[in-house]
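Below is one record:
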Amino acid sequence: MNKKVQELVSQIMALEKELKAELEKEEVKVPFTIEKGKVWFDKEILQRQKAALIDVYHYIKSSNFLYILTAPIIYAVVIPALFLDLFVTIYQTINFRVYKIPPVKRSDYIIFDRQYLGYLNFIEKLNCLYCSYFNGLMAYAGEVAARTEQFWCPIKHAKKIAYRHRYYDKFVSYGDEHYHEKLEELRKELQEQYKG
């Protein structure tokens, strides 16, 4: 990566950080505390949340019938997701130690905290649990795959891709015959983060 590109990437990262801070300022802040992994709200806030709760009967009654019919299809995906979770965890536990790649902390990606919201009924909490797990799992697996890609085949694609993980911009240009020299640099960069 040339100096100009590195500067632009640094500027983009700084702008993303600034944007994130500004967006967080605009978020509605509802005060809470976290103790031993559990979220706690003040009684007044919890009472307001409970007042906004739609009970299960009315929730189902007002739901689109086709949405209800799709629920089994959605929830059936949890079976392959559990296998993916298991295999990605085994994969990185063994391989990342051998390659000296820093392990991905699963708990940074799969977070369960929406069940503490008083305005969600049982079905909504179950849906949120599922979405938290599945989306967190995809992000976790994606990070494991991205680190693996940087170690084994950090070559940019010839065609434009829809999603670029955070390591992609460092990859070797498509067709660059200096790939093998650059591969070792990229591996070392990744391994320097290893804390195992």
User: Anything to note?
Assistant: The longest strand covers residues 32-35.
